């Protein structure tokens, strides 16, 4: 009798825990062996050709000096593949990118990912920022009281990337404004393609000034005024 009650109780608890997922998964990409193999077997030469349609915004080799356009050079191929797939499925919202990937096949996305992964990473933004204690602590130790794990535990030492963790982006030398925009978009839920809500949940616990300090820490640039732009705003024409 008691056992039956316990089973019923746990079944109800499991259902309650799963309830937020009823609205659908945050990404359609699942890291099956097949998907990992595809995403890692892209043809960079074919990707280079496909990139001609993207170069106007992302630059000739994937990096560009526009503050809210992310740098792609040297980024992990699985991460790039997943983002392109998420834009196509519209599980990551960006009017520009949802349109840009419309006609790409899974194979095209793997080829583009191989091309970007093979390019040079972005260069650090000039003068290094003085170390900010709050950012260094969050990056390397986290905050046990607020249940924030160390960023580098997932993103690699100083955000240099972590290829053994499927789909993990490198953060190092990414532009400060893009990093800020992405963290704010996770916090507001505007960006919701992170599997298991890892980024959304931990960003909810970060203050504006911590987000600014972390963006500055990883970009290697001095902190900026918090941007007033939206994550989906088109890049400024130069
Ligand atoms: C009109 C400008 C424009 C064009 C054309 C464009 N992009 Fe983008 N791209 C952006 C912007 C802006 C973002 C950031 C959007 C966001 O915040 O989700 C972005 C984001 C991305 C990301 C996510 C990077 C990350 O770090 O999360 C990838 C990958 C990407 N673009 C690849 C491509 C590819 C491949 C093409 C061509 C098929 C392309 N883009 C065409 C402007 C553009
Ligand atoms: C449990 C692992 C984990 C931890 C801890 C973690 N992240 Fe992430 N983060 C991820 C994953 C996975 C993604 C990719 C989500 C996706 O698929 O779009 C990501 C994405 C990001 C992005 C978007 C990158 C881009 O190019 O658009 C930023 C910025 C980021 N994380 C910053 C941080 C910061 C800052 C911290 C610490 C406060 C942190 N992360 C802690 C797993 C983690």
What report would you give on this structure?
There is one protein chain. With 238 residues, this protein is mainly α. The chain has two domains: 2-20 and 128-232, Cytochrome Bc1 Complex, Chain D, domain 2 (Orthogonal Bundle); 33-117, Cytochrome Bc1 Complex, Chain D, domain 2. The chain is built from twelve helices and no strands. It has helices at 2-18, 33-40, 44-50, 55-58, 77-88, 95-100, 106-117, 133-140, 151-155, 176-188, 198-203, 208-219. α5 runs antiparallel to α7 (106-117) and α10 packs antiparallel against α12 (208-219). The protein is globular. Mean pLDDT is 86; it is low at 5-22 and 227-238. One heme C (HEC) is lined by residues 53-54, 56-58, 68-70, 72, 80, 83-84, 92, 94, 96-97, 100-101, 112, 169, 231, 235. One heme C is lined by residues 53-54, 56-58, 68-70, 72, 80, 83-84, 92, 94, 96-97, 100-101, 112, 169, 231, 235.
Lay out the secondary structure.
Layout: H1 2-18, H2 33-40, H3 44-50, H4 55-58, H5 77-88, H6 95-100, H7 106-117, H8 133-140, H9 151-155, H10 176-188, H11 198-203, H12 208-219
Helix pairs in contact: 3-7, 5-7, 8-12, 10-12
Bound molecules: heme C (HEC) (2 copies).
Stretches with pLDDT under 50, minimum 5 residues: 5-22, 227-238
- Compute the gyration radius: what is it? 19 Å
What's the CATH H-level superfamily name of the largest domain?
Answer: Cytochrome c-like domain
CATH topology of the largest domain, what is it called?
A: Cytochrome Bc1 Complex, Chain D, domain 2
